[in-house]
Amino acid sequence: MSAAVAGVTDTAQKTSTATKTTAAQETQDRFLKLLVAQMKNQDPLNPMDNAQVTTQMAQIQTVNGVEKLNSTLQAFTQAQSFQAVGMIGHHVLAPGNVLNLSGGAAVGGFDLAQAADTVKVSVLDSKGLVVRELDLGKADSGASTFSWDGTTTAGTAAADGAYTFKVAASLSGSNVAATSLAVGTVNSVLMDQSGPALSVSGLGLVDLGQVKQIL
For tag attachment on the chain, is the N or C end more exposed, with fewer CB atoms within 10 Å? Predict the structure, then answer.
C-alpha cells in the first residue's frame, strides 16, 4: 500500500471515528438538556425525586453503552469477514461425512467430546456398504484427522470418487460422542445477518464458527 493510499485510508478512518463520537456526544447532550429543562420547569410543590433523576442519568449511560456496543460489534463483524475471506482457496475441516478419494488418498476427520482409547472409522460406498474399516487406536478430545489410502478390506484399490464414513469411539468400553468432519475447499464467502458463511466444496454453506481446522 502506497503512502498516499495509506494516508487517505487513515484519514477516512479518523473521520468515521470522529463522526461516531460526535453523534454519541450529541445524543448525550440532548438528554442532559432535557433533564435540565425538566428540573428548571418542575413544580416546586411536587419536585422530581432522587429516583427520577437517577433513572434519567441511567438512560444516558444506557445510550452511551449501546453506542459502544454497536461499535464493538461492527469491529468484530469486520474482523470475522476479513478472516473468512482469507480462507478462500484453503482446505478446511468442518462437520460432514464425505470422504473424497483421489489418486489413492483421502482425508477425513472427527471431533471427540472426550479422549478415547478406541476410535474406528468405517468407509462406505454409494450403496452404504462397508468398503474398509480403519482402527485408529487412541485419540485426544477435540478435532483430529485421519487418512485412507484407498485400499479395501479385500486388499484391492477402491475407485476414485466420493465415499462416506462413520466414526465410533469409546473409552473403557463406554461410548464417546463423536462428530464426523469432512475436508473441503473454501470457494467463496457469503454474508448474512448471522455473520460470514463459507461456501465449501462438497459441504455447501458452512458457518465460520463450524470450522474446526484450516488445513
Answer: N
